Amino acid sequence: MLDIYLRHIGDDGNKLTTGQSSDINEAPFPLTASAWATIHKHLETPRFGFLDDMDEDSTWFRILTKRGFDTGILLTGDTFDPSGYEFRYRARLPWCEISSEHSILSVSVPIRFLTDHGADKLRDLALEFAEHLPFTTGHAGLSLSFTWGRSRILPIIKNELNRHPGWDVPNTGATMDLGNQIDGIHWLNFLGPSVLEAVGGAQTLRSRLSNPDTTVQELTEGRALVSLGAAPLAGDTKLDEPNPLLAYRELAQVLEPWLQPFRPFNTWSDFTEEETRRWWRRFLD
């Protein structure tokens, strides 16, 4: 997956310069040639067998089960000069039996990548990932980036965030056990076999979506992609009143039973519970 990402962004050594790994070094480190080699090794080669076969008193068993994931990698631009490019991966714990835990892959590009290369380039990247990943759910669209400073930045942009519902606030730390729930409504919405079957299949889903900007594309292995327009939109409640992003709202209504619900522990710093809940349900209420 990392090689696919690097190929699409045309990495020239300046877009990703800093790494952080749960297995190499908890502190950020420069992405030297040797660091890149080590990262690829950790991503490509399983280091342990199943946890079920490990001694529960062993150091690694305690470490892995306490942190809740296996390998974790974060690659970004410079700490003090973010490039807008980011590659983040967390691998589920290697249990013998299938569990509700899921691995998480999250990648970002700056908004100028969209303006320079167009939305089709982003769609191609998302579709190539989907081709190689046995996903349950996935998405692509406009998203804020909080490698660091999330709790400080969110209160500052509260008014702009509420004005532009098309921007997503990623819930990076709480989706390892997402199961068959869907993490919000986005420009591109990927539904895996279990989720697609639960909503009635691609044809049923297509029949329930009437917005002309919406398309439902069937993918291999019983999966589908729901696209909301040719390009991601931020929306503007001041310009598009009373109902901006109608395609997003329609899809939210159809998928509501499977959307990840708001819970009080999701409340953001300096937001009231009600303020966070209203944003969480911005396409529903």
TrEMBL record:
InterPro entries (UniProt xref): TsiV
Pfam family, one: TsiV
Domain of life: Bacteria
Protein name: DUF3396 domain-containing protein
